[in-house]
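Hey, I was hoping to borrow your eyes for a little while. No rush at all, and the record is pasted right below.
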Amino acid sequence: METYPITVGGVTRHVPLIEPLPGRRIPLVEFLGDPEFTRAAAEALRPLVPKEAEILFTTETSPIPLTHVLAEALGLPYVVARRRRRPYMEDPIIQEVQTLTLGVGEVLWLDRRFAEKLLNQRVVLVSDVVASGETMRAMEKMVLRAGGHVVARLAVFRQGTPGLAVDTVAELPASSCRYGQYLQYISPHRRRHSNRSRGIQPGPEV
């Protein structure tokens, strides 16, 4: 299998290239089962978390260990939106994701007892990769519906040009790439890239 090297915080991994859509090959980033890579990514994100943050919000599955390590380092709680309904859920917040980045549509589910933890809280959205930005847009809508306020949108990798402002620390190719093209880690001093806006504003409705 052909792989692609990605580097964050001095830690490099050779990840497989997948083809979610015909003619579109992208690196598959996974934090599950890789504590060293996860810690490096969380440490890179840590300076981007606003001091006023009160809770982190993410989705399953790969971003969970990343968010767990980041939350532990910050001393903050976190909440996870699920990608399918669980039998124990009562009165969940249900949010459709308007994206086909990986060739499939999605629906996010947040059990009401976890949604209540976002009420009146300053929330930081956390993801592993942001591409179109639609998953993060859906996460933000869930926070607003739960009565929270988003103060930052963070992702380790940016792939292409998201449709809303997101702080990231490294970039992935938006389509097919050649082995040996290494990602460059972006230091916290350069994190205000061209896709960053001053202050967090909800993206346009779609």
The helical segments are 35-45, 63-74, 112-115, 134-145. The CA atoms of residues 96 and 107 lie 4 Å apart.
